[in-house]
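chain below, 270 aa
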Amino acid sequence: MNDQSATFTTNELITAYLARQIEDDDLAFVGVGTNGRAFTLAVGIPLAAVRLAQMRHAPGACVYWGNLLEPDLSEIPEKLTQDSLTHWQAAACPPDTGTKCDMLMRRAFDVCFNSAAQIDRFGNMNITAIGDYRQPKVRLVGCLAQPEHAAFVRRPYIVVDLDKRTFVEEVDFITSVGHYKGGSSRTETGLSEGGPRLVVTNKAVFDFAPGSKAMRLVSLHPGVTREEVLDLMGFVPEVSEDLGETPAPDAEELRLIRHDIDPNHILLRV
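prediction:
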């Protein structure tokens, strides 16, 4: 779905799907991304989704990204450089990360978007280290505020590409607790009810089964087969009895994404 002749791209499909999850007056937390595909997953798609929601059905939705509270998503800078961000119109620019962490722990956020190097069947995520923590094969970016996202945000969404190296039976290090070991194990650790709501990938969408809290395949993107999805996973997920096709973006959603939200391909570039 990524070639020029396609009706829509995978990025556009994911953006439209996530936009439909945003409710009016939601406050969404968008984290940071490095570059390339990691930026698109962690930042570009979430920002585009919030803006699409604002334009379609949730005018009161807003976002906290970086050091910007409620940046004007109708005027996304042509380049997301530090200078551009400094001059981006926003409701506020809090001076330190302590403000965000305080808001997180006070449950001020309705939605957050996360990506990860590893995720397991219960939605535990790892962005800390691959291999043994003390002698890792790869040292990753570290926890940032991801533990607080998973602990305190009402509706966390995970946005990540499907790959066996990412979807593993058990993460090497739990940066953020999802549904822990399944069932009621999350609340038994002292955490509140909650955990990740959906995992949205480039091939399919998953939720977490109500009883087991195990990852469950709920929809396949157009043209993708169940076998293709399972071949890209390091564990076998549950499968919904109502497994269907992920809804395609409609003509108006595509027009808004392409001509109003991201005409310069800043957000959905990879």
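Residues 1-5 have pLDDT under 50 and may be disordered. The radius of gyration is 18 Å.
thats it, cya
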